[in-house]
Amino acid sequence: MSKTKENELEQGYQEEFQLYQSMFRINLEQNRAVKSGDMKRVFSLGNQKQEIVSKVDQIESRLSPWKKKRSESEFSLMNEELSALIKKIGSLLKKILLQEKENESCLRVFLGDIGQNLEHIQTGKILHNAYSYHKRPARFMDQKR
């Protein structure tokens, strides 16, 4: 593999690794926000993660020509640093995926609680309307107008 190609790949993967580290930290913060019920923060962090994904996509498109030209023999000749970096990225992506699943689970529980609260409120409204007194006094049949 040529040094230029190797350097370009290593630089791109290093940028991706840093972005994925940021995404993992955001996932942890998002988990805390879900558990505390701060949905504005959850959505804000989700937007930050989307920006990171866009940046990773840009890096991937920049690296795509280098990756396509790489043959199997070149892959086996990849330097140890680049190979280790790719393994670190893979490991970090697994952590991110696990954290995403945990966040999703916590969010489902939170939304289930909200659903139960809404049902309780709706029942309360129905009961309130059924038993509330109207503004006009009741009329009895034996009373004259």
Question: Could you explain the architecture of this structure?
Answer:
- With about 140 residues, this protein is an all-alpha fold.
- Helix content is about 85%, strand content about 0%.
- It contains four helices and no strands.
- Helix 1 packs antiparallel against helix 2 (about 40-70) and helix 1 runs parallel beside helix 4.
- The model has no long low-confidence stretch (mean pLDDT about 80).
Task: Please tag this protein with its features.
mainly alpha
Strands, count: 0
Q: Which regions are unreliable across 5 or more consecutive residues at pLDDT < 50?
A: none
Biggest pleated sheet = none
Shape: rod-shaped
Q: Whole-Å distance between the termini?
A: 103 Å
Element order: H for helix, E for strand:
HHHH
Q: What is the mean predicted local confidence, pLDDT?
A: 82
Summarize the structure.
The protein has helices spanning 3-36, 39-69, 72-76, 80-131.
List the helices and strands and how they pair.
Elements: H1 3-36, H2 39-69, H3 72-76, H4 80-131
Helix pairs in contact: 1-2, 1-4
